[in-house]
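FW: tagging you since you asked about this chain on Friday. Here's the raw sequence from the shared folder, copied in full. Didn't touch anything.
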Amino acid sequence: MTVLLSNGRNKLNDAMRTILTTFLREEDYARGFFIKPNIVFPVRPESGEITRPEIVRALVLALREHQADVDIVLGEGVAAGCDPQENFNVSGYTSLAQELNIPLVDLHEAERCTLPWKFGKLQLPALVFDRTYINLPILKQSSACVISGALKNQKGLVAPNMKKHFHRMGLHEQVAELNMVVKPSLTILDCSHFFGRNVLVSGDNCGEIDATACKLLDIDEPEHVHFAREAKLFEAEYSVIGDTLNLKRIASRPVVKEFKRLGRLRLWSNPQACTMCRYLFQEIRQNALKPQNFRAGMKLFGYALKGAEVVMGSNPQWRKEHQHVICIGACTRVVAKEGGYLYIPGCPPTVDDLYENLP
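HL: got it, structure written out here
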């Protein structure tokens, strides 16, 4: 097995040609391709939260250089609670798909097939198996599992209810076992946020790619990478080829934090909390001038001055330093009832839910 490093000094189109030559030289282009970027939130490309459209553009153009009429489908299953069309529009993917004249598919609506896996049966988009599948994640920090990269990007393939179930079960082992079922022919991990623009880590094994990213970041492998190794998704010995990276350019290293601060609010991390419960506060900050966000933000501001513990996900863990505890989402209903805490219902809760239920 091999991992290829591209240091970003060459043009992106040239890097894509090298990647395709290295990993897909013998691929049957007549099968067509399915490309899955990360478009989990309705944010702009420069946010560092989604795969940049220019990465997809360069890949599509490189595939078309090999075969001009190659059949390509682009798709993503956004975070549970998000509006797929809003995600596609805000992120620039709607316009990119129109520019490249390729279909952009909401995977939540795609035809699915049922496969066995460690926890029973799993429904996944048929596109993944009918075509050559290319996984296009972005390397970013994750409050749920330290880093989100090649392995975790595949969670976008599962249906919304199963995404929530992943979190309730613990997330790490579920992500690893998903990768035992679905093995992309090629994964290209965009590491620009940490190592410099257009730095890519590519290969045909998601576990090797994430393990390599951890080595480059000089961090311990998160649990989901350990689980993938234990499941024999990848072995300790694999080769790393390509460019040398200037590791002095690392912008910041992901660290495990018990909580994030927002004024005197302490937002406690929990891998069992779904993506959109955590995103609720980011949404308020990013779109503070929207009327509904402004109203909810003003209520939150009061608690940010007084101090409050904010917990979410099933079985949340926290230390009570402040008098107020705010329980976010349906998973915390029992905790809120037993403790007499503030409770924001919803799965996931919306900004309006927050406004209406905060005193």
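FW: The chain has 15 helices and 17 strands.
HL: agreed, and The CA atoms of residues 82 and 91 lie 13 Å apart.
FW: great, closing this out.
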